[in-house]
Amino acid sequence: MFEALDEAAPQTVRYLVLELDDGEFVHIVGEGNDTSALTGLAAFEAFTQNHAERRSTPVKRSPAKIIGNYHVLEDGKAG
Q1: In the beta sheet, which residues pair with residue 8?
Q2: From what superkingdom does this record's organism come (predicted)?
Q3: Among 17, 22, 21, which residue's Cα sits nearest to residue 57?
């Protein structure tokens, strides 16, 4: 995924993957107004194939509001 993002260089996408101590992964995605900038990549389509077989818990999706940002998102300013 990260190689594909580097190649495509979509300007509106922010993507962060964290691995928790218990081995679970958290994917944080910001897409701006272009929701296909990430989901339209062939690498994303390949990554999501057979996804249900690879995960140990159901997918939990939830919109979030940025409360603070320090050098994680593009502008790097504290909220």
Answers
A1: none
A2: Bacteria
A3: 22
